[in-house]
Amino acid sequence: MATVKFKETSPYVKPKPAPPEDDYLYKKYLEHLTLKTEKEPIVKVALFGVGHAGTIHLETMISSRRVQILYIIDDVKSKWQSIRKYWHLDNVTFLSSKQCDKVFKDSNVDAVFVATPTITHKDIVIKALEAKKAVFCEKPIAEDRPSTVKCYEMAKKVGKPLFTAFNRRFDPSYWNLKQRVHKGEVGHVHMIKRVAHDSPLLSLEYLKVSGGIFHDCLVHDIDLIVWVLGEYPDKVSVLAHANIPEIKAIGDFDTVAVNFHFPSGTLGMIDLSRNSPYGYDQRLEVFGPKGMLQADNRQLNSVHLYNELQGIITAPIWYSWPSRFMNGYKREFEHFLDVVHDKTESEVKSKDILAVSKIATACEESARMGKVVELIWTKDELPDNL
Ligand SMILES: NC(=O)c1ccc[n+]([C@@H]2O[C@H](COP(=O)([O-])OP(=O)(O)OC[C@H]3O[C@@H](n4cnc5c(N)ncnc54)[C@H](O)[C@@H]3O)[C@@H](O)[C@H]2O)c1
């Protein structure tokens, strides 16, 4: 009877609590359930590249009522028919890269998605912008800084969005963590720590043309750290090693330990590996004088087994990025469409992209030369919120 005094009135006679703002999946469900329509034109798109990344974007496009796919451009003609059949793309035109001018000349195309190998990005991005299309480009925009600058200058000149797909930012946990760091929940950040252990091990064919672990992989983690902090490092010190002989043979590394120093006194660390045998291990932790925020791994399900004296057995963590970051990809896609419709500013700005690339270059220099590398930033390079 100790709690009888807390008995309350029926929930039916009280106002119904609203779903939390952050439950974007439920919000989307309600939109579909109530057939909520907005007066916005459908964005007509062309997708370049249907490989590992392109397949994710294709699936998102097909499930979105905000876009219509007009063209798919991929050089492997043998898979066109299978893609058309699998996804029921009867009204989509398939082209090879040699025929892609058709896309740029078609005034019906509003936006171009680029998910081809990095070496091809610059050419497609520039042509698409020249043709006044909005561009969503897989990271990195280009192979080097001058080409990246050129792409952003073109975007500015033609007044069209050029969005780089740093999708980790759109992961609900990292998004929430960043908002809370900016609200001061841990105070001035003393330490930010990132663990990024990739799974599965990528093919050597991919790694050979990837641009190396610093620009292909570490950029995501650098971006996450500087985005959360709103600050760029002034010193980096990096150790790297290739434990896998085939990776050593191509002059790359599979394991990297990064230390950052930031002008405000914050320290940062990244523990990066190309090969995690137990799943896609992605953690982020921020520590300050008022507390600690932690974004932990996500598991396949929430079932726990208590078995004899074995401890608690739980499900594995997600196997790889297409599953772990699926919600991030979807939210990133919705964000890009909002940018195309001028409903919001792009969350990923040209300054961020150029800064991350500069930091990745400094990390590689530190690892290869075995020294601390200092980073000097001009006022123009610094984030706008500083
Ligand atoms: N944001 C992320 O999490 C993420 C994850 C994976 C890959 N990526 C990026 O996505 C890009 C593609 O990587 P991937 O792993 O999907 O590669 P992939 O090799 O699996 O796929 C590339 C596709 O592009 C096609 N292609 C090649 N040249 C083309 C051209 N000129 N025009 C049209 N199609 C062409 C290929 O036939 C292939 O189907 C890379 O820049 C990579 O860095 C990003």
Automatic annotation (TrEMBL):
Keywords per UniProt: Oxidoreductase
Gene Ontology cellular-component annotations: cytoplasm
GO biological process, one term: NADPH regeneration
Keyword Oxidoreductase: yes
Residue span(s) of domain GFO/IDH/MocA-like oxidoreductase: 176-293
SUPFAM superfamilies named in the record: Glyceraldehyde-3-phosphate dehydrogenase-like, C-terminal domain, NAD(P)-binding Rossmann-fold domains
Every Gfo/Idh/MocA-like oxidoreductase N-terminal domain range: 43-164
GO molecular function, one term: oxidoreductase activity
Pfam families: GFO_IDH_MocA, GFO_IDH_MocA_C3
Family: Belongs to the Gfo/Idh/MocA family.
Protein name: Gfo/Idh/MocA-like oxidoreductase N-terminal domain-containing protein
Lineage: Eukaryota, Metazoa, Ecdysozoa, Arthropoda, Hexapoda
